[in-house]
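Batch manifest, entry 17 of 40.
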Amino acid sequence: MSEDAGTLLIRIRAALPGLRPSERRIASAFVSDPAAAANLSIAALAASCGTSTTTVVRFYRRMGYAHYKDFRIDLTRAVAREELAASSLPEVSGDIDRNDSLEGIVSKVALNETLSIADTARSLDTAALAEAVRLLLAARRIDSFGVGASALVSLDLHQKLSRIGRTAINWHDSHSAWTSAATLTPGCVAVAISHTGATTDTVEFLSIARRSGAATVAITNFRDSPLAGQADVTLTTAARETEFRSGALGSRIAQLMVVDCLFTGVAQASYDASMTALRNTYAVVRDRVCRRAP
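Output type: structure tokens
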């Protein structure tokens, strides 16, 4: 039995991209309707997924279980945890579709993002987070990069670190990011953000930075991704993808949550200097705003 049954569905979602097609069909059955799948025998599950009982056994062993019974028990516990987490939100089901009202859209987005944050908080490796905080504290320069929605998260990290006096640079295009990464040296840190961990430009940025001698940090949903393979420290999110906009709803909010934890860890570890910097930067902005007021 796993040490934390509540993370089983999180681990199944994270494993999906790296599974064989036959195993992926099994994983998809557990993700789409875990309560129903948990009630199936090995033979019934194999039949419903169009695969063999041997593949089912291989799948639950890949998830860390020696016996299917233990896997089903933990799956039931994980379902109960998710139902409890969602109990305070309006009851909704399914992905966003063309017939949803605005009220329904609000409820579905709220549920997706709430569960993405809750799952990320539950599964985030605090030892890895502590190591990332240590690296950023010691860094003389921090470069960050992301593409698409992850670019917004990279910019958020840059702005937060800059406000507490850290030398942080965010790159908006891949060529600038690559050329900057080539100039990094030991004592610098490169932070790359990608939901899939397979975005070519982002992986290349971290690879170049690593070859240059910089410490590397990845923020991604998939620990076995190419991006994680280039990272000294990997911080994993547990975002829930939707068909309406694959990953970009839950992934962004989960990434921002990790960035907030990373920033807060750095600020707390340098408390006095960070609080002084935050007060000073706030005062400067407030002063300029007040001068413009009629």
